[in-house]
Amino acid sequence: MNVKQYLDSTYLKTAAQANLSENENTEVVINCIQEAIDNDFKLIMIRPDKVVLAKKMIQKANSKVTIGTVIDFPLGNGTLEDKLVEAKQAIENGADDLDYVVDYEAFKRGEVDAVKEQVVQGTKLGLAHNKIVKWIIEVAALDNHQIVQLTTLIKNVVIANFSEKEYDKVFVKSSTGFYKTPEGVPNGATVPTIKLMLENSFPLPVKAAGGVRTYEEAVEMIQLGVKRIGTSAAKAIANGEISNSDY
Ligand SMILES: O=C[C@H](O)COP(=O)(O)O
């Protein structure tokens, strides 16, 4: 299976998180962008301050790789104004996809109207500029009931406020890749979680992100029905694909 066109190849570490200098971290980002170009991945997902760099490299290479960035990352607890300001800047800088972190803690506190409003306004801004919009629900911070509820809320908000032809441009995405459970275990795109999201997101597509590491895992996600996979292991997944097809 050709998985490359499902892959949002992701590098979201700050220099401090990667324990690198700013220059060294930028080098890592440059390598990731080049890797996405060389492997013809669907998208390169980087921090907002690296979008201009990605745009330049992709244009120079005359590549079809698209650019995604994260908004209000990784906690999603900024104000609606914060989210929109950041998203507008990302659009101006040339991002194709806006991966917003929904305020999942506000949702857990029962602040449903505020969460609905951010989904309406953030989606409206993205779609008005012909962007793909994704809402990261951070599944590891939620129990199964909350995953169902938040996925359903996003779906219902989109159905109520946007036209049918726009549904496939608004994703529900599982994870930031940065959340740690209290036990310190990263938790993301597991099969049961993604199934739960898919069962409740339709007609909105799902992006599986967080912990997808191998070609086999990527294929499993695609077979379940996800339309994108966010992963910091895109190259390994693509290599697995090549070695798999050799047998
Ligand atoms: O948006 C995608 C995630 O950051 C990827 O998570 P990962 O680093 O566990 O692959």
Automatic annotation (TrEMBL):
Keywords: Cytoplasm, Lyase, Schiff base. Its EC number is 4.1.2.4. GO terms for molecular function: deoxyribose-phosphate aldolase activity. InterPro entries: Aldolase_TIM, DeoC, DeoC/FbaB/LacD_aldolase. Gene3D superfamilies: Aldolase class I (3.20.20.70). It holds the Pfam family DeoC. It comes from the Bacteria. PANTHER family: DEOXYRIBOSE-PHOSPHATE ALDOLASE. This is Deoxyribose-phosphate aldolase. It comes from Flavobacterium lacisediminis. The lineage of its organism: Bacteria, Pseudomonadati, Bacteroidota, Flavobacteriia, Flavobacteriales. The gene is deoC.
